[in-house]
Structure formats: C-alpha cells, structure tokens
Amino acid sequence: MSILLLVIIAIVAVLAIFVWATYNGLVQLNVRVQEAWSDITVQLKRRADLIPNLVEAVKGYAAHESKVFQDVTEARSNVLDATNKGPAATAQAENQFEQALKSLFAVSEAYPQLRASENFQQLQNELVDTEDKIQAARRFYNGGVRDMNTRVQQFPANVVAGMFGFKNKEFFEVEDMASVEKPVEVKF
C-alpha cells in the first residue's frame, strides 16, 4: 500500500509541477505580448506627435492642398483612438494613415524648395525612423502572438490554458494589401 501511495503522490507532484510550469510559461508569453503591444502604441504616439509639425512645414509651401492636410489630421486622430480598440482596429486605422502620409509626401515632392528645407528633411527623417521602429514593434508583437497562440493550442498545454482562461491573441495585420500597395495619385 505504501508503494501505491508513493506512486500516486509522485504522479500528483509531476502533474502539479507540469501545471505550475505551463501556467508560468503562459503568463510570461502573455506579458511579452502586452509589452510588445505597448511598444507599438508608444511608437504610434511618437509618430502622431511628429505629424502636426510635418503638416505645418508643408502647409507653408502648399496652402491650396487643404484636403491632404485634413486627411492626414483625421487619420492621425483615428490611429490614436484605435490603439485602445485592439490590433484589428489599429491595423485598419494604420492603413488609412499610411495612405494619407503617402499623399502628404506626394504633395511635398511637387515643391523642390520644401524638400530642400532643413526642417522638412529633419521631420521626414524622424518619421522614417519612427516607421522603422513601428515595423520592428509590429514584428516583435506578432512574434509574441505567434508564440502565445502556439502554446495555447498545443497539447497538453492547451488543457492548462483552458483551465486558466488563456486565449489566442490577435495578430497585427494589414487587412487590405491592395490599398497599401497602390500608388498615390496627386493632381494639381
């Protein structure tokens, strides 16, 4: 009877260690995904803070292009609002924002003296740097989501995940690739 009791205690101990280790691993992955999402929102905010300066720099040269400025301002606001609504809403707002920025840069191309402006060049470089950081943050976030979703779906970790309410996370994806890849038309 004592050997049977030891075997039962050993099995329970192994199961408890497995649940403990799996739970802690899932928590770690969940925190990593939250951190990555926070990085994305920080970079989106940084970019949104740069946009008004960029718009003001371009306005002086292209005052008659008010629709472009209005679109950029509206898209900026939509991105800031969407970051609280999750990856899908943020990705959709990002698509609109990228189109608006393409239009703004297309307008700037029509004004050589603007392109030569040191302020404009500095703002454009900051924006490019920020875009690179946003892309890196997206990749880090999606990598964390991939790891989390894989772990939540794999057996036997999926049993522990289900017991403690861990669910798949949402990837940050571009929904409409055609609109992102389409060149911007600017007519004067």
Structural write-up:
The structure is a single chain. The chain has 188 residues and is mainly α. It has helices spanning 2-59, 66-82, 87-109, 112-115, 118-153, 157-164, 177-181. The model is unreliable at 179-188 (pLDDT under 50). α1 packs antiparallel against α2, α1 (2-59) packs antiparallel against α5 and α2 runs antiparallel to α3 (87-109). The chain has one domain: LemA-like domain (de novo design (two linked rop proteins), Up-down Bundle). It is rod-shaped. It contains seven helices and no strands.
Assembly state of the chains shown: single chain
Q: What is the second-level CATH architecture?
A: Up-down Bundle
SSE-based structural type: mainly alpha
**What's the total helix number?**
7
The fraction of residues assigned to DSSP E strands is under 5%
Estimate the mean pLDDT confidence: 81
- Structurally, how many domains make up the residues? 1
Label this structure with key terms.
disordered C terminus; rod-shaped; mainly alpha; 7 helices; 80% helix; de novo design (two linked rop proteins); 188 residues; single chain
Structure summarized in a few sentences:
The chain has 7 helices and no strands. The chain is mostly helical. The protein is rod-shaped.
